[in-house]
């Protein structure tokens, strides 16, 4: 064996002997402590008679002090009041050592002639309950919840080129909308702004005066409207503006890598196949129509005169059903209708922008007949030929029902928010 091995063995034996000796020392120390604690310091009055032989042990029951109304009595022994800790701590090793023994500590003898009054124990006073402080929840420090996809009625990937931004710090929606305003005003296609409301946990369209503070932003450039598909110049301007906005907000602009221009061309071709506007012309058979009568009939039919110079019928949700305009070039206005006369009126129904188009067309036809009877006019087509019932039914099925069915098959319901954006 080498000297290193012998040295290690010696160190190990020394450590074992040291631990054994330490344990023996601790045992001796605890025994001495127990003897010191349990050793009586005063003479025991029960065993001070040396001449008496050992009698059988007497069991004495301990009597608890009671509060009485009578006068105090003389007692042979004084009962010391004991303090009870309302909030006891864990016992130490010395206390546990005393508790484990069965020896009863002798009471301290007192002078028998001194009167003692029983003192009732003081009731334990519980500390007043202190309400815990309520921690305010700060929205900026709250854990983020997955926002989920943006609803298609707000932004549709088929119809818009969507840029996603995740902001590090919340920013006011008004500041976001005004950031690249001058650059985006040059576009020929609408831009739609959508943000995530942390309070309601839903995506909402941002208004120019919105005070919403947001960390999730989606910006969509519409690919197609009634002016045609998206142009390359509009796309370049939009991307540049979004990159500048991301730099200002210290965010990353996530842009889809897709065939945008091919997608825009396909959607534009689809829109052209269903973009129809049905008109019913009402022409006079003799004298011209009076403007005051036209206004009275329109308002009786629930139509409202708008800023565009037309009367409009709305549904209960505020969506346009159909319009009434002058067959001649003069537009309607509240002032002009007082003296205006015209030889014709036109009822218009925008097929892709109206829900339940066939039913709406029937309502429009019924109101047009009422105008014809009152004003002494006739319903004619664009060639000023009278329209029969069969022709009206053909228009309803072929030029309203079928196009709207085609839109539904494409996943784009007529009159839906997507259709209203697309056919604008």
Q: Layout of SSEs?
A:
Blueprint lengths: L2 H36 L54 H7 L60 E13 H7 L1 H4 L6 E7 L4 E4 L7 E10 L1 E2 L2 E2 L2 H18 L2 E3 L5 H15 L2 E8 L4 E2 H10 L2 E3 L5 E4 L5 E7 L14 E2 L1 E7 L6 H19 L1 E4 L8 H21 L7 H6 L2
Antiparallel strand pairs: 1-4, 1-7, 2-3, 2-4, 5-6, 8-14, 8-15, 9-13, 10-11, 11-12, 12-14
Helix pairs in contact: 8-9
Describe the model.
- The chain has helices spanning 3-38, 93-99, 173-179, 181-184, 232-249, 260-274, 291-300, 357-375, 389-409, 417-422; strands at 160-172, 191-197, 202-205, 213-222, 224-225, 228-229, 252-254, 277-284, 289-290, 303-305, 311-314, 320-326, 341-342, 344-350, 377-380.
- By secondary structure, it is of the alpha+beta class.
- Strands 10-11-12-14-8-15 form a 6-stranded antiparallel beta sheet. It has a 5-stranded antiparallel beta sheet with strand order 3-2-4-1-7. Strands 5-6 form a two-stranded antiparallel sheet.
- Helix 8 packs antiparallel against helix 9 (389-409).
- The relative contact order is 0.08.
